[in-house]
Amino acid sequence: RLKLLLRRLEWPPTNQLVAHGIVHELPWRVAKVSEVDLQQLPQTIHKQEQDYLRGFFDGDGSVVLNTDLSGCVLTISQSFDRGEALLRFRAAFRGGIYSSEQGVGLRKHTVLWVVRGKMGKRAAAILGQQSSMKQAQLKIAASWPESHESRLEMKVTWKHLKHFDHQPVAIPCSWAYVAGFFDAEGYIKVHAHSFGFGFRVAQKNPSILHCILVFLKEEKLAQRSPVYKGDNMNTLVFNTGINFQVLGQLLSAGLTVKRLEAELVQTMTATNFIDVRNAMSRLSGNQSRYSRLDDEGVLRTREINRIWHRVGRAINHGCDEDFLGLLSKFQALQKEHTKAKLITQKRAVHEDIRHLLARGAGMMKAARKKLRLQSVDELKERTSRARELMRRRGRSCGGAVAAVGDAW
């Protein structure tokens, strides 16, 4: 119930973008560019920067078709506190940056980079110079036709290219391209039980992940893990043995959004990996906030794993008495661990609700109306009254149904 309440808490409005620790006020509107200035702008950018932007756009970028078929718009959406890549896109292609969606619950505010018109065509032409996941869409945006009939035909082609099973032409990878794609779709996880960390990249369309696999082989890196296929997502997990090599290459190639996490991981040793893991959790997003184990949870799982290994040894040696005693202890530890996790999660959700309320959050009602609250106690009181009202209404409806049934 606390999580349900949290999901209905809407953050107070904000018009800010945070990048490299600096707060910028939004909106950053599109600066007017004359025809002469537009012609004088270069039609290409530095190769490494172009590769980075191409990789990031393949991950988080979108080519949007105007509803009136007047042309296409290039957009990228990011959390308001992860605006580093948007500044690079604006520096290369102009455009504007605006507040997009208001934060709700654990979901942060989002901001949107947008470029359209002639500047949008220029950006699409530059990003589409080399093969990429979205090259075909970018070419459409760069050469949008004038006639209505051609635009209708192009709309059909554009919709087909949006399918997740679209097969692009072989994508030329570089470390800058992988850095951009990793900034958009990658994830770094420090192991809870031992010194080490993992890299992974997820994408609906597996084509790009296979291209990265081929690139790693060309770079003589021993990547043996395949692309893992899930229900809705495909994942490439980098082998542990090459993680530090890959990390160094990505940093050298311009990793930006996840630079702080990468630099923090580089300081990790066998004695400080727990501190690094805790620091990483403060830099990462909120997706795994309530499933992540705290330090006590890590110690509990270590003990559970240790007992389970002893259970296995007792089975192999035929020690029935040891087996039964260890199994009982294992089950008790599991039960204790489950209960402790729930208590920790409840405490974390409660703290998040208090934090949002203190910042002026309001609870959304139907039609996105907000109910202003001053404390968690007031939130509980109003929820209790709403639940009692629903119970009374349910009882009243139930009596009416029964009366109709008797009359029939």
Automatic annotation (TrEMBL):
Matches recorded under InterPro entries: Homing_endonucl
Protein name per UniProt: Homing endonuclease LAGLIDADG domain-containing protein
